């Protein structure tokens, strides 16, 4: 494996790590340590922010495949995050509508 291939593999692994953590924090996948669905949208946003930072900091230093992979991961996470926020807003709206 060449140093560039190794770096690409490590970069991919890093992105996948943040992506999996964000999905876990959004409650989309189980926490492997507890085998439970756990939800923490603040932490999910932190993982998305880390990947956004990675885009900015690696600009000009990634090849097209790496850029596309990172962009796709971020797009998927952001769409899922918006979906989870909408669920919270819907739940809050429903709670306000219910008589006490």
What does this entry look like structurally?
- By secondary structure, the protein is mostly helical.
- It has one domain.
- Helix content is 74%, strand content 0%.
- Helix 1 runs antiparallel to helix 2, helix 1 runs parallel beside helix 3 and helix 2 (41-57) packs antiparallel against helix 3.
- The model has no long low-confidence stretch (mean pLDDT 92).
Question: What are the SSEs and their pairings?
Answer:
Elements (H helix, E strand, L loop, with lengths): L2 H23 L15 H17 L6 H34 L3
Helix pairs in contact: 1-2, 1-3, 2-3
Please tag this protein with its features.
mainly alpha
Q: What's the overall average pLDDT, rounded?
A: 92
Treating each run of at least 4 consecutive H or I residues as one helix, how many helices? 3
Query: How many structural domains does the protein architecture include?
Result: 1
Q: Considering DSSP H and I runs of 4 or more, what fraction of the residues is helical?
A: over 70%
Report the structural category: mainly alpha
**Global morphology:** elongated
Question: Which range does the strand content fall in?
Answer: under 5%
Query: What low-confidence regions span 5 or more consecutive residues with pLDDT below 50?
Result: none
Quaternary state reads single chain
Note the run of SSEs as H and E.
HHH
Main β-sheet description = none
First-to-last CA distance: 65 Å
């Amino acid at each position: 494996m060449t140093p560039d291939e190794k770096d690409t593999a490590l970069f991919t692994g890093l992105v996948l790590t943040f992506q999996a953590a964000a999905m876990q924090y959004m409650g989309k996948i189980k926490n492997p340590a507890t085998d439970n669905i756990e939800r923490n949208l603040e932490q999910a946003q932190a993982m998305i922010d880390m990947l956004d930072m990675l885009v900015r900091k690696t600009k000009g230093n990634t090849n097209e495949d790496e850029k596309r992979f990172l962009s796709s991961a971020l797009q998927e996470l952001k769409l899922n995050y918006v979906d989870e926020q909408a669920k919270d807003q819907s739940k809050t709206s429903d709670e306000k509508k219910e008589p006490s």
